[in-house]
Amino acid sequence: MNDDFTPLSQACVNIEDRGFQFADGVYEVIACFGGTFIDLDEHLERLWRSGHAINLTPHLSMEELAELIHETYRRNPYRDAMLYVQFTRGVAPRSHLISKGMLPTLVITSRQLPSITDEKLHQGATAITLNDFRWQRCDIKSISLLASVMGKQEAARLHVDEAFWLDEDGHVLEGCSTNCFAVMDGELLTHPLGHRVLEGITRKMTIRLARKHGLSVCERPWKLDEQGLSEVFMTSTTNAAMPVCQIDGNMIGDGRPGNISLSVRQWLLNHFKELRS
Ligand SMILES: Cc1ncc(COP(=O)(O)O)c(C=O)c1O
Measuring CA to CA, which residue among 169, 117, 168, 174 is closest to residue 151? Predict the structure, then answer.
């Protein structure tokens, strides 16, 4: 935290931190497999982009932050790790207006990355849909996640894994903590970038790998009831690509993980392995 490495139980923030008072901050979640960080540069660039969008400039360079992330991992070297990095605007007497010359608060943690069991992969994930009630700048990776917390909580109440946000016309935007893809007549579809979805690092890698393997990918709005939809999968740093086999109680395709979703997952895992070697 800031300039210190502290046991988690002893790390505390000031109650006047604007992260605590206003959720005034941005964050990243980065995977590290066997000591190799996955797309660290892309995560840092997105962190800077998110910061720039809210006029929050980190007080150190990307290189300095990368070194601190590496050091946090060296001190907490899980085989498959998840590095959480958060900047808030810093500490000031509570006022909506931002004080001049604030020093951002920086927090980095390294934890075990939760793994997906073979059994879960075999079953596939389940989801619900909800009308999007988030703010209109979902492209910013903001720590203001109350809507996502509510979406996930509703999913948990209904014993499913994820909630997908729908726009006013019923198009699938993304999940609470995932991007979402459909397979339609053999082509991959995902909602185009803009203010209503986060530009997922895994989304970007998925599109690149799919095209490399000869799959057509179209970034356009899509709906769950479109003719020809055979598979759905979600992507994120913590899931790679995960097949979704049931949404709102309706089976997708034959209700089992589809071949294209499983191939995409394998391409991503192979890509991570290549980075390691
Ligand atoms: C709303 C949302 N969309 C998509 C993603 C996936 O992004 P990434 O692949 O960079 O982990 C996340 C990750 O936290 C998210 O919160």
Answer: 174
Point out the ligand 1 atom lying closest to the alpha carbon of residue 236: 9
Rounded CA separation 2/16 (Å): 16
pTM above 0.70, yes or no: yes
Residues 129 and 105 in one domain: no
| Cα 230 to Cα 253: distance, rounded to the nearest angstrom | 5
| CATH number assigned to the domain comprising residue 223 | 3.20.10.10
pLDDT digits (tens, 9 = 90+) for 131-151: 999 999 999 999 999 999 999
Mutate to test the pocket of ligand 1, among 179, 191, 209 (most ligand atoms within 8 A of CB): 179
Residues with CB under 6 A from ligand 1: 29, 174, 177-179, 198, 200-203, 235-237
> pLDDT of 49-69, one tens digit each?
999 999 999 999 999 999 999
